[in-house]
User: Fold these one by one.
Assistant:
Number 1:
Amino acid sequence: MEGYAPAFVAHNVPFMVVSGLSPSENFGSDAGQQCCQITSEIPLINNGESQAFLKLFQERDGGQLSWNSKEYNGRNKFKIKVVGREYNLPPRMAQLHAPSARLSNSRDLSPMPRPTAHSPLSPLTPDSALFPDGLIDPEWISKHQNLVPSVFVSFYKFTSDPNLSTLHDNHLKTDISNIKSVIAKSGYKTKLIVALLSEGSILKSPEVEDRLANIRKATGLDSKTSLFFLPPQSSPVEIEAFVDTIISTIYPLCIEYYRELSKHSRRKRNRGVVPSLSASPRIGTTTQILSSQAWNVRYDFKLGVFAEFRQEMDAAIRSFESGYDILLSEVMEIMPSWSPRFIEARLLADVFAIRTLRCLLWNGNFTGAVRRWQSHRNRLRKFIDRKGKGTLTYGWEAWEARWAEVMAEMIQKSAIDFDDESMSPYLLPEKNIVTGERLEPWEYMHHPGYWYSLASQHQTSRRALAFAIPEEDRSPQTGKSPRNQAYDTYLCPDPYEEYPLPGQAGVDHSLLIIESLTKAIIEFNKRNQLRQVQELSIISATESIRRKDWDVALRILRPLWHKMSYRKEGWWGPVEEVGWALRNAAANAGDAISVISVDWELLHKIFVYRPKWHYDISKALDGIETIDSRPSVVIQHQDVHSFLLATYVFQNSEGKVGEVCLSQLAVVSTAMPASIPVTMSEIKIEFEGSMKPIILRHKGSDATNSGKYSHNGVTLTDIPSQTGNPTLAGEADLTFSPGQAKVFEFTCLLREASEGTATSATFSMTSKLFDLDFVQTFEPTAAPATWWTSTSAKKQLVRENPAAITILPKPPKMEVRFIGLQEQYYTNESLVLQIDFVNDEEIDAVATIDVWLLGDNVPPVSLSLISPDHMADSTTRSKETKEEVLSAFEIGTICSGASSSVRMSIPPIDVPAFYELSMKVSYHLVSDMETPIYKTAATQMAIINPFEANYDFSPLIHPDPWPSFFTHNEGDDTGNKVIHRGLSQKWCLTSRYFSFANEDLVVEDLNVDVIGTNGGIHCYATKTDLPEGGVVVSPKSLDEAKFEINSQKLSLDDRGTATLDVTLAIKWRRQTERSALNTTILAVPRLLVSSSEPRVLASVSYSAIEPFMIHFEVTIENPSNHFLSFGITMEPSEKWAFSGVKASTLQLVPLSRKSLTFRLVPFTRGDWIGPVRCVIKDRYFQKILKIAPTDGMRIDKEGIFVWAPPAEIEEASVLEDDTE
Amino acid sequence: MAAIPSIACLGVLGKNNNPLHISIFPSQPTNTPLRTPLQFSLLLSSTLDIFAARSTANVNSNGGLSGDFGLLHAIDERLACYGFETNTGVRFVAVVDVRGRLVTGERVYGGMGMREGEMKLVFKQMQRAYVRLLQNPFYEPDEHSPPGGKGGRKITSRKFGEEMRRIGENWMPGTIAA
């Protein structure tokens, strides 16, 4: 809205001056003028409170808020100016030149001959700029908005000192009265408000009330509306509330103040009298004075502005419309169109319209506002066509552009909320527009971006009209000639500036357009209308190019060219437009990369052919001087719409290692038919996976190869490279003519099992001036891929990604055999396994093996190679490892059809375990040493304990006599030999062992080894002999072995308990030839040998003479050093008859034993008889001794049973009774 | 003589935001198109912003408003864009020149401005023509808006073009949708 005085277009709010708080340099009206000065001798308040007040008032200043009712509510109702104690009010009346300069009331329009004073801004005052026939001066609004306050708030300190209070109050009274009188004298009706801030230490006293009443009475202030008192020690919240109270209390007064002013104007308007000039027009000036209609325009304007001060927008609209109508229809009609007053009036018409628009926007009449905007334009157009210089001038277009910008700025200033939920760029019409009424689309109010863009369109039209100015009018000399009066220069320059002659400075139309567009782009960007932004950016860049501002154009176009939606969405026209523009800008700015990229894209035949263009990519940089170094450009295919389209296809989706696979690179050119063929220096195809990159090099053009279709088989050679990335290279003709389809077919050997995917092809071009790389990545497309045959027939391949191949490993033809693998392995057995590798390949193979043994506590594995002649069994190489993995054991060359063997041995394992043995044979054929082939084999080995056993430990009667007290055995203690003098005891260890094996095992030997004794005892075990060749133990069977253990204490006096630790060793082997003998050692629970307590052992023997007779013998041993007496009772039984002691007492001397024999004749045969109830009781301890059975006897709960042999066997079993 | 609205351009935009068809019509009084073909295609492309914004707004507000989008925006005082979206994502855009036709006869239904829903008939006719195009077994919709979301070919059917021309030329404000 530049061009209009700011005061003319700014929004008006009530004006308030706050004094007494801060030393301010703001004195109001210019002090030089003769004016009314408000002064005061009371010092400023300067403490924390005053700062708080200052801040609060500044926060509430509504001078800069957006123009809408939402912002101007609550506390932001005033424009607030903070001043010191002094303030100057502008003079209300101009000073009269007449000698008797008496101030008089201007309202007093009595037709008295004496001159009357008028406002200095009135057209009646000779010093005024409006004198004698101007309409209104923006200073007038400025005066009310910035200089004459509606309310003058004066802050004073209210003293607390009782001694000073009277003096102080008197000062206050004088000061307030002074200010009042100054204001009254000035003629303004400014309200004076006094705010008293009581000092901190004031006490509550009735005096305060009296003092306040006194001041009020003396100054005539109204206690409710013009005298405010802040009690002492108020909190910040209270202070804020105080300020808000002041504002809300005085606001109605201020409104009343502006209403008074309105009334004053209305009265004058209604009077309908043209006021007389305050002085006669000076000699030499026109006697033109304002007509009564013009005075009405003036009054209407004032009425509207005061209504705006009161925020009564409807009233303001009414006044403005009335003034506007009179202005255009009556006042301007009679003005000469060449006069400056006509320009002023036109400006005022615009201001009327702007103010009306703002009031409409304020009220939410958006469609109404657009209509008003249009109607002002249309009315003015008609008027200018009729009265002015016509509307086919650049001046009119300049105004149209201005008018659109005014609307845009007004909408922005009003902060209208467009971003509602409907996400629409325009607002719906207000409610009072009838539904179904015909609305022009533009009447829906669009956001400012559209208005700025409209402005730019008018700027463009303005330029077109400006450029049509004939040359003779463009010279500054003709500037003031009458000829130039034909041009409308309302708010725009003269023709010689508008379109200057070459070499002269003037208007830069492009810059104006760019400015408007930039503002529009910001608005569109805010609302995410990115395509609209692109469109405007193109125009803006074109204008920059026009100004030869290459860098700016480049800055816009380069990102646009890369990111624009048009390319992705297939809008080729805009793409082309941007492309050519960018090329133009880049060529001039020396941006070689952009030039080459654009040239590459523009070769596509989809764009419009330009006959004068060379269409040769190699000439892209010809004629561009500003490039320093040789540019190197990389173009990604997704960034451009490329005319070269490469696809890569494998013939099959799967292949095996060692096989040959066919693949094709097809390059289709859709270049402009008239373009020069493009020659690439090389094409590099990159793969993902193990495949080597392929490089195709240009080998020179081939004349026969220029048809529409060419099919080239390319032989690839392996090129090892220093950098460790071997490549395959080939040669072909890499010239691509427009419209040509070229297919390069490759044969390559698949080497390694993996997934292979062709990822990209890079076309490299080396030109005279630059290097170019065009990178095309292969992406799977929805359309089926094509396989081209040499006859240009096509085959469609329907695969997910035809540029991918799955390379399967070569099926190995190597057999791994485990020889001698047992079904079950046992602990304590060394594991030996022979593994044969049979080469079924047609070619000799070189192999190595890796062996893993997996499980807990893996034993070391050793491998040894068995030389081919099995007989010798000589180990050529062996390897052993402590680790789980035994890797890379070389087997060497295995001839085709032959085999090699390896022996694997694992040492015996003590505990049961489960192992997994896996093996990988890696080999390659001597014909192709690069392709490894793998074969794996695995087996499981479970290792279990072959035997488990349980044990029975029972006493036997030792046959040796006990030592006698009466025999003195003189031992020769001289030697080293230890003589055992203790009692000898004999025991029987019965072991029942169970076979857990799942096959027959041969037990060759069983042995009990004494591994430790405890308690001074000597002991040895006798062994039961097994038959020669051992015993075959079948699975899940129980065998029994008995061992006799003799023990003897070292000393006869040692009566302590002794223990024995023995183990059972089973020597066994598998029931096969040449099987090794293994020893399994089973632990036996600790055996307890006691020798201090008396014990009773029962034994049985069968008489040789009397076949029916059974000798039942009870041996009582007394190993103690006491005399013991035992009671013996033998109970009779129905099952046998017996002879012997029925009941008796036996006395045993220390260290002696005694046997009692009973002869039993059983009544049944071939059966266990019993229980034999023989009770032996220690007389002294009254304790029944338990009878321990020995061989041939059985014991259970009831007692001891004795075997009565059947009659036949009786004779054979002869066992002599062995008595003492 | 009065200037009433006429159609300045009809556009069919594919699912991938690609142009499928553009017909341009001359405006009075010069009887030439108001803008260049490039400007019209920029103009059509710009409507996609509003289609996108409205669709998001519709999804957000759960309003299943498919079909008539009404006024998309007015470019300036003469040109305004109206839009319609089919349920397969094809968009029809009618660019109306508010003063594109001069009439002298007394049977003037319209006048300045447009009434709401006045473009419905145009869109209905365009949709009918498009459906007829789809019924042609040689028309492959996927070629024109490939599923990958990038570009697509234009409609080349002469019949469809003629149909569009007829719709654009015959439309008058005030013709009520049948």
Number 2:
Amino acid sequence: MKPTLSIVVCNSPPASPPAEAQPEQVEMPFAMVNGEPYSQLPHDLYIPPQALEVFLEAFEGPLDLLLYLIRRRNLDILDIPLAEITRQYMQYIELMQGLQLELAGEYLVMAATLAEIKSRMLLPRPALPGTDGDEDPRAELVRRLQEYERFKRAAEEINELPRLERDVWPTYAELKERQVVRALPQVTLQEMLIAFKEVVARSQMFAHHHIERERLSVGERMSDILAALGTAGFVPFMQLFRPEEGRMGVTVTFVAILELMREGLIDIVQAEAYAPLHVRAAPAGRTLHVVADNTPTVPPTA
Amino acid sequence: MNETHLRNLIEAALLAAGAPVPLSELSRLFDEGQAPASQELRAALERLALEYAGRGIELKETASGFRVQVRGALASEISRLWPERPPRFSRALLETLALIAYRQPITRAEIEAVRGVAVNPNIVKTLLERNWVLVVGQRDVPGHPELLGTTREFLDYFGLKTLDELPPLAHLTAMADVNLQLDLGEDAHAKSGEAADGGMAPFADEDSAEDEEHPESSATASELVASGPRLDS
């Protein structure tokens, strides 16, 4: 009878023997070889190439595989025998080729790195001026391995922390009758003001609008004044105002006069202090430009 | 306030909430102006924790507050309450989580640099879905890679109050501390050793590689072979 062996997928590399069986727990044999139950992985079990897929799953990448190779021999990570490790690493890579192409990329980069470091180790290293002497070609690899190992350990330690769902569970007690108790909110004056502002803003949405044309236009009034002055020479200041138009009309007329003065289109004269003001159109030639579209050009002074 | 009443109130609140309750939440239980000072609350919580000593439950403070939980020592028995096994997390996930926890904020590329393999997007997705990890920002470099950090839920899940409570990282030993193999004698030795290994020829043509590799591969194979019967017999 051909012996059969079934490989069980395990998360830890096969080299590390499974945790000691706890006395109270009877372990299921994971394999039967020639009718004999095996409940523990033999140390450094030879993995047939067909099982490589399973085997590689156990490694978290080339750094992990390399660490495994180093730790298996109890080698010092700071003083790796590179030839030996590279040779072993290449054996795994060769086993892997053709089986795990999608994984091979990262593993091959590491193979190339190892070969490169090895060749640099063989070459004489002249001390270049400006560099701090010879750096061991392995230094970078050792740094990466150490760094990876730190976090590999940290991950294991995090896994050991007592955690929910596995080691501890939150407790819960039923509340028989649940009353809704609403605490009265603390309201500040500022919040009140903001709320009031919003109410006012909303009330303004309901305001009615009546849009009407501007009844009194400064430009139009300026034209009227110039027309009135055009022929009459000096006109008493007071005569330009029409009190029946009310305050608005008087103001518009006054602004129109000021505007005309600014434009240099009229002159205002006063014979003596407290005497009535008189207005006349400015002499021709002082016209600067048309005041407004609807303002006729200044008629020439008589 | 009556000490017993205070204790009962706190105990009941922690049990009713079913999730970690922060001190601020506890002080909201009281009528306005009646809430005890936070030292007083803390003292009451400590008394409660002492009362739980030697019981099946314990009071634990985690990142989000206080919770009453089943004592860890009873885990193996209590887990029989549920038929399904507790979730197990792959080494890849735990390593990724460890890097995020210790090195946060960290980009995916930085995780890849340490682990030497590409970050599995499913792992990051799982961590994000479990709300253990959060995109905390983007690094201001071309490509704007996302920066990952851990959450309170992560600390709560692992029973931690702060990140400082994570197990300390191992120290790095500098390579300068060891004797570098620089002197000629060792170099020569290494050279001859490597030449004998045929280690220089991993990429040489197959024939010669096979010839040279053969003796060692059998040697290594015998080291690797199980102590049990050969598989190919």
